[in-house]
Amino acid sequence: MKKVLMFPITILKYAKKGVGYLFGGGAKTANAPKVKKLDGVALDQELARVKRESTEFNREEEIAQQEVVMPKLQSFRYVVRGSNGNIVKGIFDAENEEAVRIFLTNEGLEIISIKARSKWDADISIGGGKVKKGDLSFSLTQLATYIKAGIPLIDSMRILARQTSKASLKRIYDRVVYELVVGCSFSTALERQGDAFPRLLINMVKTSEMTGDLAGTLEEMADYYTETERSRKQMLSALIYPAVILTVAIGAVVFIIMFVVPQFVDMFASNNAELPWITEFVIKMSDFLASYWWALALGIFTVLMVYHWSFKNVRAFRKQMQTFYMKLPIIGNVIIYNEVSNLTRTFASLLSHSVFITDSMEILSQISSNEVYKEIINRTLIGLSKGAKISETFRGEWAFPVVAYEMLVTGESTGQLALMMEKVADHYQALHSNAVTTIKSLIEPIIICFLAVAVGFIIMSIILPMFDLYGQL
User: Fold this and answer.
1) How does pLDDT run across 319-367, given as a tens digit for each residue?
2) Looking at the structure, do residues 182 and 86 belong to the same domain, yes or no?
3) Domain extent for 79
4) What DSSP element (H or E) covers 171?
5) Are the C-beta atoms of residues 265 and 287 closer than 8 Å to each other?
6) From 26, 341, 448, 466, which residue has the greatest number of CB atoms within 10 Å?
7) Do 235 and 218 belong to one domain?
8) Could you report the per-residue pLDDT of 138-179, keeping only the tens digit for each?
9) Same-domain status, 108 and 25
10) Quick check: 142 and 115 in contact, CB under 8 A?
11) 383 and 307 housed in the same domain
12) 277-313 vs 261-270: helix crossing angle, rounded to 10
C-alpha cells in the first residue's frame, strides 16, 4: 500500500530526471567510463570510416556482389478457372504478362483473362505489404512440417499459397513460388519480395541453405517469431491498458464539468449565492471547455501529429524520447526488459547458426527500432574492428543491465556466448512479463485515486455554495 501511495511522487521524481536528461542534463552511472562515447552523426561517420578501412569488414564487398537485384515488376489482375471448375480472381506481380501466363499455366489453372492494373487500381492494405509476425510464425511452422514430411519446397509453398485466406499474403506467396520455379534459391525468393519478410529470416535461410538444415532453421525461426509476437503483445497491453483507462477517466471528468456543472451554475445565479474560489474555478473551467473545446481538441490533435511525425522522421528526437521513456520508473523497465530480451534472443539465434559476429551485429542494428541500442551496436562494430571484445563496448551502458552484461562476459570467456544470450533472453522475458503485471496492478488504484480527487474537487465546488444558500433560508 505504501508503494501504491508513493507511486505518483516517484513518477514525478523520475520524470524530472527524465526531463533533465531530455534537455541535456544526462544520466550518469557509477560504472560508466569517463571517456565521451560517440553518438549521432559522429558515430555514423566513424562507423562508415571503419567499414572502409578495417579488415574486419572485407566481406562487405563480397556481400555486396551477392546482393539480389530487384526486378522491375508490374501488377496484373487475372481470372482463372481452377481444377474444380471454380472461377478464381487474383493479383500477381511479374516482369510482363507472359510471366504471369507461364506461372498460372504451371499451376494447372485455365486462364480466362489477364489484364495489367491501371494506376488508379490501388490496393487498400494495412501493414505496408509486410507479413505479420503471427502469420509468419504459423507459415514457417507449416513449411517446416511439410519439408520434414518429404514434400518439396516448391510444393510446400504452393500449399501455403492455396490455403491462405488473405489476399495480400497469397499474393506474396505466389510470387515466392514463381521465383522458385524460375530457379532462384529460397533466400533469394524471399529477398525479392522487398520488405515483406524480415531481414533476419532471410539471413537465417541463407545460412541454412549452406548447412542443409532448412526445416530445422524454419522451426527455430517460427519459435523466435512466436516469442517476439508474444512479447510485442505484452508490451502493447502494458501501454494501451493504462492509456484507455486514463482516457475514460478524463472523459468522465470532462463530461461532468461540461454538462453537469452548468445545471448548478444556473441555480446559484438565480439565488445570488456567494461563490467560493473553488466553485468559480470549476465554473471558469466549464465555460472554457464549452466555448473552446474545438480549439483544445485541435491543439491536442496537432501536438500528437507533430510528435508522431517527429518520432518517425527525426532521429535525434526519437532517441531523446526513447531515452526519456526508458528513464521512467516501472514503464522504463518494461521497455528495457523487452529490448534486451529481443536483442539477446536474436543475437543467440544468429550465433547458433554460425553467422559471423560482425554480420550478426549488422543485422541487429538493422532490425532494432530503438536508437539507444542501435548506437550501442554500432559502437560495438567499431570496437570489433579494433580487436575489442563485445563485452568491452557494452561495459557501462546504462540501457544494458548488469546481469545481462555479466552473462555476456561469461559467454565470451567460456565460448558459450549463444547459450548465455539465450539464457539472458529467457530471464528478461520473464522480468518483462512480471513488469507488465505490476503495471496492470498499479494502474487501477492510481486511476481510482485520480477520479476520487477530481470528482471530489467538483463535488466540493457544488456543495459549498449550497451551504451558503441553506444559511440564507
Assistant:
1) 999 999 999 888 888 889 988 988 998 898 888 887 888 888 888 888 8
2) yes
3) 74-225
4) helix 167-181
5) no
6) 341
7) no
8) 899 999 999 999 899 988 998 888 888 888 888 888 888 888
9) no
10) no
11) yes
12) 150
